[in-house]
Design a protein that fits this description.
Chains: A alpha+beta (191), B alpha+beta (322), C alpha+beta (878)
Oligomer: heterotrimer
Strand order of the largest sheet of chain C: 24-26-25-31-23-29
Distance between the termini of chain B: 32 Å
Largest sheet of chain B: 4 strands, mixed
CATH class of chain B: Alpha Beta
Order of helices and strands of chain B: EEHEEHEEHEEHHEHEEHHE
Number of domains of chain B: 1
Number of helices of chain C: 24
Strand order of the largest sheet of chain B: 9-2-11-10
Radius of gyration of chain C: 27 Å
Strand content of chain B: 15-25%
Number of strands of chain C: 31
Structural class of chain C: alpha+beta
Largest interface: A-C, 118 and 159 residues
CATH class of the domain at 733-877 in chain C: Mainly Beta
Number of helices of chain B: 8
Shape of chain C: globular
Number of strands of chain B: 12
Shape of chain B: globular
Chain lengths: 191, 322, 878
């Protein structure tokens, strides 16, 4: 088969399906002009993951683009019946929620009466928390009320959180807490 | 909106852009009457174009309504303006909002004065500053009648809205227009946007007429009366000055280089052909020019693809990490 | 709505372009008002008076009385015709209180806070005590009032105990049907009681109370009337500031009542649209990290009610009529999800290991419990009470009483840094050296760094995929709780103490499959789909046999299901069958009367229950099963369509999943002695209510009255013009402790109404926005919005500093002088509003004073929500 010559202009003319407002013209093949003014698309070839905005409860759909395992862009999912690709300023800033030098990446620990943070190894910190939970629970656990009703309760621990965390986390947290007898469980719904 | 009927493909698939828009005058039509001042456009622009925040975000509040962006500049390519209008007893009141942006003028003062040809007219009739060619001379800043351009403090070149040239060349709607929740910012071929704008003006003015109110809706920059036409034009319901827009913007014609084929005089001489005809021809001229200058014809075997290298000095280097 | 939910407002704008009228009720002129056709300026907290005025206008309007649709809908679908106990006395008779008011006696917990308590015996339907037919299943109430109500003591005749099966137990709870008057003329009918209740809510009275001009209120009422009917619907949208009053639930109830009266419930374009504030605030209520309920809106077992055994719990909580009759299946399947094989019929499904609540353990009482040294440790995960909690000064000081505090977040929040950065720590009032609290800060993964689901405000559950590993030691919240659980199970594994049997038997089996973590560096993230499998449910003993939906649940232990309402979200194994991960945007279509209709995108995510996108959608059809109009057709009865499950002709069909028994004909009658939906007729749309009706009058479920009544906020600069002797709710919760003092009514020292709110540019306490330069620069500083009139009175110019003072604290911030705030003429006084966003704190890219240092811990009696939207302050130039 003969090779074909496609000029930049020709390519663009072939894209003439784009007549309706906002309709995307689709080129059949990955043919790109190499004009001096040709622009690279920084998300071309990136991996794309469907996601959801973590701010308010409208639940705008987003897509997350990654290159080499790093997030490079987050934008509205144009197919979404919720938001049709649109976002509010917070949703538009999701990238910066992730890629942000202000993020803490170590476990921080402050001793009783301490005046500064220390860093802790993650596994050590988890062990320490588990020990403290057990101690607080065991020391405040009550099996029965004074009039003999089953209580099986510890009011010595208070768990707050949930509204911006996954449903799966909410399930595990309330399950673990209730499994231990912790009943003071709350989230943003009442804050 | 085309419907996609398949189940979402497995996550982690490679992003494949849909392909370029047709070369024709494209731009923004901004209906200020549906702008809710959310500033999604400002942030979506920064997100896509990698722009920094002023002073890392820690600037003082302005006290001018909810506008803390204050101006378009090298790191703010979108700017939502807030105008409070109330009678003393509050019986009359409105809060006008408008997302300002580069107008991508048909007669672009910036382009005409640029000594290094860093500012180009694209196949979409938009006006783009090429950061790697800009020498930071600031001539364009003075030449812009809308105060759009400033030097970006991170890379020290003059910067402004590109109308997401990179997205347009890949068939993606510019970031601000895609993000706009209420479709105040609409993107598309200028000819179609004008029809939409005209219909909306008629709708609003009919409503006003029926309610006995003044018919105050009009389009700003949709025809050729303002610097030959604006590829980002507006529906307004008050005088241009109320929105901080010049009633009759002036081009720095005395500074225009003689070599440009796109002088104000030249455009005026083409008036009878109609602006769009002129602009269409200009598109074709550009395409031809591009072919010649950049040896743009590409010989391709079936199935062969062309890899486009990232443009030097373009995205990513503008605002650092955030 | 434009301010806080801009993308949802997109559809309001589309409706407006199509001719809809937008009404905005708010003290301020906001970005929403800017788009509205009508602005009703209301004094903060006066909404019930405003809505009551609209109800009064509607019921006496020409259109409501002449268009037959309204009466037909109201008579058939609401409890308007039901007769109420003739001993019931209204607030109009008792000067602001309902019959049954008595004193409240605190129990052992001591922090319930009620100032009074109702016995709702006189609020009951004639001929039946609906309150005995299950207590509070469908409400959020925790039982701290129920114990002293007359109902329990009088439920002398115990229904049969024991089970499974529990059918006989449920049948034993049945009561005779209530008495009705379909003419709506009986003076004891709900309709007449409602009408009489709002008689004094005239436009002029409403203007005096709310500040909204009488004509404006009439205009709003007429606009609603014109845009409601067989071929039109109106929606009422609210953000949750509406709930934040000592009568918050009653406020929402007034709106619901208005929508029922206008025939806007269960119909497309109608309803009450709750615009909730967080990505999965709905999910975290459904899957309750809330003390008062367990999965799927079942009440938390409590010692304040007769809940000693599973049978007793079910006797107390099961509604024998309505879909809640299936509660034994939900509850036993839930206990199986907790304790797995260890939960057997013989050991009462392990119920003896399950903890009971003993009072109000919600956030505000827990802050007081902390301050009183009753709490050892606390988790604050994705929460920032040092800024977001009411009376934040008190909250921070209470944190300093803990032995340990675990904070998990993306940034070092104010709560994490309270011990050295809070105003108290910085001023030396409470220096770090004096704070014994151990603080752990665990960095969190963000949404794109983990797999999981969110449930949005329309109950739509959607999965988000992990796209990248989080940085450093940041981990998902799921990772933290999972690994903490593994450690605790290890620590308890050798215990022989019976009280540790619950944690020993707790099913904790979420280890990821290899391929789930293969792409990532972090290999020990638990499997989100395995957790969703447990939420969805499976056949006990075979986790691969997922349940297809809640109809498959059994009460004999053969099914395991954490959340009955989410059942059906994951009907088969494999991520491709997790319906929350589905992204197909094809809308449903249907033909009716020769017209093609388009519906909704049923395979974009999954909406509980059963993927229904609109609840109670049976009401979108007439009682005879035909659509009220083709324009508003949504779900209807097709007498010819063959029900595949039964082979019978006739079934409900349309554009949505019908919220009704599919094959139940419109003319079906209740079955004699039937339980569950058998007790309802074919024209009872509200399938979760005992009588199948929408409730205008609420005989049970709300502890502060069967009808909404205008009360003033606990702090108010004006008297209650309707009930001068009972200005505030007689049963609200207050905690009068040191550091949490309320201003007295009409205290001249605090003459202004203070209201707090959010801005589009920020999120909550600012943790997710003030650390982001892009958002920080858009609203960099806290400001105090005041009118030019108040500014002139105080000699304050725009951007000059002012001091805002309440009995709790004082903050300084710049004034934003704007005509968008207007003085109001209320009860003969000029009332000024002071408006404060509350996004700032002492950590972040931009910082500022904590607005909640000013607010008060005081609670609504039903759900313990605070009154953050209406309190009083003074303001001076700084």
């Amino acid at each position: 088969m003969d090779s074909v010559v496609l000029s930049r202009r020709g390519l663009l003319r072939r894209a003439a399906g784009a007549s309706a407002l906002g309709t995307l013209a689709v080129l059949g093949a990955d043919l790109r002009p190499t004009a001096a003014r040709a622009q690279a698309l920084r998300i071309r070839g990136s991996k794309t993951y469907p996601s959801v905005c973590p701010y308010c409860a409208v639940g705008c759909d987003t897509v997350v683009h990654t290159v080499d395992g790093r997030i490079v862009n987050v934008e509205g999912d144009v197919r979404s019946p919720i938001n049709r690709g649109t976002l509010c300023p917070k949703g538009a800033a999701i990238y910066q929620l992730h890629v942000n030098p202000n993020r803490v990446t170590d476990v921080l620990y402050r001793r009783p009466g301490g005046t500064s943070w220390e860093t802790l190894d993650l596994e050590t910190a988890m062990d320490m928390v588990a020990e403290r939970v057990k101690k607080a629970r065991d020391e405040t656990f009550v099996e029965r009320t004074e009039d003999g009703k089953t209580l099986m309760q510890s009011l010595g621990i208070y768990s707050l959180g949930g509204a911006t965390m996954d449903n799966e986390w909410n399930h595990l947290q309330q399950k673990l807490m209730r499994g231990l007898g912790v009943v003071a469980i709350e989230n943003q719904a009442r804050i | 909106m085309a419907q996609q009927t398949d189940i979402f493909p497995p996550p982690g698939e490679a992003m494949e852009p849909p392909g370029a828009f047709e070369a024709q005058p494209m731009g923004f039509y901004t209906d200020t009457t549906v702008c809710i001042g959310c500033k999604a456009c400002e942030v979506a622009c920064k997100n896509w174009n990698g722009l920094s925040a002023r002073d890392g975000g820690a600037q003082p509040m302005s006290g001018d309504s909810y506008d803390n962006t204050r101006t378009l500049d090298g790191e703010h390519w979108r700017h939502v303006k807030f105008i409070e209008q109330f009678s003393e007893d509050r019986s009359q009141g409105r809060w006008l909002m408008m997302s300002d942006v580069c107008k991508h003028c048909v007669q672009a003062g910036c382009l005409e004065v640029c000594p290094t040809n860093a500012i180009i007219r694209t196949e979409f009739d938009t006006v783009v500053i090429q950061a790697d060619v800009c020498n930071g001379c600031r001539d364009c800043i003075a030449a812009c009648p809308f105060g759009v351009i400033e030097v970006n403090p991170v890379n020290n070149t003059a910067m402004k809205c590109t109308l997401c040239y990179d997205r347009m060349q890949n068939g993606l709607v510019p970031a601000c227009a895609q993000a706009c929740p209420t479709a105040s910012i609409q993107f598309g071929p200028i000819a179609e946007l004008r029809e939409l704008g005209a219909a909306r003006v008629e709708q609003l003015n009919t409503q006003s007429r029926d309610a006995g109110r003044p018919e105050d809706a009009y389009l700003y920059g949709a025809d050729d009366s303002i610097v030959g036409g604006l590829n980002s034009f507006y529906l307004l319901i008050d005088e241009p000055e109320v929105y901080g827009l010049p009633r009759a913007p002036k081009l720095p014609s005395s500074q225009l280089p003689a070599t440009t084929a796109l002088t104000a005089a030249g455009a005026a001489g083409l008036g009878l052909l109609g602006l769009l005809g002129f602009r269409k021809r200009r598109m074709d001229d550009f395409a031809a020019e591009a072919r010649a200058e950049a040896a743009e014809s590409v010989r391709l075997a079936p199935g062969e693809t062309v890899v486009v290298e990232p443009e030097r000095g373009a995205k990513g280097g503008v605002g650092g990490e955030y | 709505m434009a301010e806080c939910h801009p993308v949802a407002f997109r559809y309001v704008m589309q409706a407006k372009l199509a001719g809809a009228k937008i009404v905005h009720a708010d003290p301020r002129f906001t970005r929403t008002t800017a788009m509205a056709d009508i602005h009703a300026p209301l004094r903060a907290g006066s909404d019930i008076a405003f809505l009551g005025g609209i109800i009064n206008h509607v019921l006496n309007s020409k259109r409501w009385n002449e268009e037959p649709f309204f009466k037909e809908y109201v008579t058939a679908y609401t409890n308007a015709a039901t007769l109420i106990n003739p001993e019931f006395q209204d607030t109009e008779e008792l000067d602001g209180v309902f019959s049954g008011l008595g004193p409240y006696k605190e129990g052992a917990w001591g922090l319930n806070g009620h100032v009074g308590q109702y016995d709702n015996k006189t609020w009951q339907y004639q001929g039946t005590e609906i309150a005995d037919q299950g207590r509070s299943a469908a409400t959020a109430q925790s039982g701290e009032q129920g114990v002293q109500s007359g109902q329990e003591s009088e439920a002398a005749e115990a229904p049969p105990a024991g089970g499974p099966p529990y059918d006989e137990l449920v049948r034993g709870l049945l009561k005779p049907p209530s008495q009705t008057d379909p003419t709506l003329e009986d003076p004891n009918s709900v309709f007449q009681l409602v009408k009489k209740h709002f008689e004094r809510y005239t436009p002029e009275m409403v203007e005096q109370i709310t500040g909204c001009p009488a004509d404006r209120m009439r205009q709003v009422a007429e606009t609603l009337l014109e845009n409601s009917g067989p071929d039109k619907t109106s929606a009422i949208c609210y953000a949750v500031g509406w709930t934040q009053h000592t009568y918050g639930p009653q406020m929402i109830g007034t709106a619901a009542m208005l929508q029922l009266l206008l025939g806007n419930m269960g119909r497309p374009g109608g309803g009450i649209v709750a615009l909730r504030g967080h990505a999965t605030i709905q999910g975290s209520t459904d899957i309750p990290t809330l003390y008062h309920s367990i999965h799927g809106y079942m009440p938390a077992p409590t010692v304040l009610k007769k809940h000693e055994t599973v049978s007793e719990y079910l006797q107390a909580e099961t509604l024998p009529k309505s879909y809640w009759a299936n509660m034994p299946k939900f509850f036993v399947s839930y206990l199986k999800s907790m304790y797995g094989d260890a939960a057997t019929a013989e050991n009462d499904w392990g119920y003896g290991w399950h903890p009971r609540i003993s009072g109000d353990h919600s956030h505000m009482p827990m802050a007081i419990a902390k301050a009183k040294d009753r709490v050892r440790g606390m988790f604050a995960m994705g929460q920032n009470p040092a800024v977001g909690g009411q009376n934040a000064i008190y909250q921070r000081k209470a944190l300093a009483k803990l032995d340990w505090l675990v904070v998990k977040d993306n940034f070092e929040t104010e709560t994490a840094a309270f011990w050295y950065k809070s105003p108290e720590a910085v001023s030396g009032e409470l220096p770090p050296e004096d704070i014994p609290t151990e603080v752990f800060f665990f960095p969190s993964a963000q949404v794109a760094e983990m797999d999981g689901t969110y449930t949005n405000t329309q109950r739509l559950v959607k999965y988000h995929f992990k796209a990248a590993d989080p940085p450093g030691d940041a981990r998902s919240d799921l990772w933290f709780t999972y690994h903490l659980g593994l450690r605790l199970k290890e620590l308890y594994k050798d215990s022989t103490d019976p009280r540790d049997a619950g944690i020993q038997n707790l099913v904790w089996d979420y280890e990821p499959d290899e391929e789930e973590v293969a792409p990532w560096a972090i290999k020990d993230e638990p499997s989100a789909p395995k957790i969703m499998r447990e939420i969805n449910g499976y056949m006990s003993g075979n986790q691969e046999e997922h349940l297809p939906g809640f109809a498959a649940l059994k009460d004999d232990g053969s099914t395991t299901c954490a959340s009955w309402i989410y059942s059906g979200i994951f009907p088969k194994p494999g991520i491709e069958n997790l319906r929350a991960a589905h992204r197909d945007n094809t809308p449903t279509t249907a033909e009716y009367d020769g017209q093609s209709l388009q519906g909704t995108e049923l395979d974009w995510g999954f909406a509980w229950p059963a993927n229904r996108r609109m609840l109670y959608n049976r009401a979108s059809a007439r009682p005879d099963g035909t659509p009220w109009s083709v324009e508003k057709a949504w779900v209807w009865w097709d007498p010819d369509k063959v029900n595949e499950a039964t082979g019978d002709a006739g079934m409900w069909t349309g554009l949505d999943v019908p919220d009704f028994v599919l094959g139940k004909a419109p003319d079906a009658q209740p079955k004699e002695g039937g339980i569950g939906l058998d007790a309802h007729s074919g024209s009872d749309p509200f399938i979760m209510k005992a009588d199948g009706k929408g409730w205008l009058f609420t005989p049970t479920g709300l502890v502060d009255g069967p009808l909404p009544t205008h009360y003033e906020p606990i702090e108010s600069p004006v008297p209650n013009l309707l009930y001068p002797n009972n200005p505030t709710s007689p049963v609200l919760k207050r905690w009068d402790v040191e550091g949490n003092v309320a201003a007295a009514a009409e205290d001249p020292a605090f003459p202004y109404v203070l209201t707090t709110y959010r801005l589009t540019e920020h999120h909550l306490s600012g943790v997710m926005s003030r650390w982001l330069p892009w958002l920080a620069e858009l609203q960099p500083e806290l400001f105090v919005e005041i009118s030019p009139e108040l500014a002139a009175e105080k000699g304050v110019a725009n951007t000059e500093f002012v001091r805002v003072i309440t009995p709790r604290g004082e903050i300084q911030a710049k004034a934003l002088v704007t005509s968008r705030i207007q003085p109001m003429a209320i009860a003969g006084k000029t009332i000024h509003h002071v408006g404060l966003p509350w996004h700032w704190g002492y950590q972040g890219v931009v910082t500022g004073p904590v607005t909640n240092d000013l607010s008060l811990m005081v609670g609504d009696p039903n759900v313990s929500i605070h009154e953050g939207k209406a309190f009083v302050c003074n303001l001076e130039k700084a």
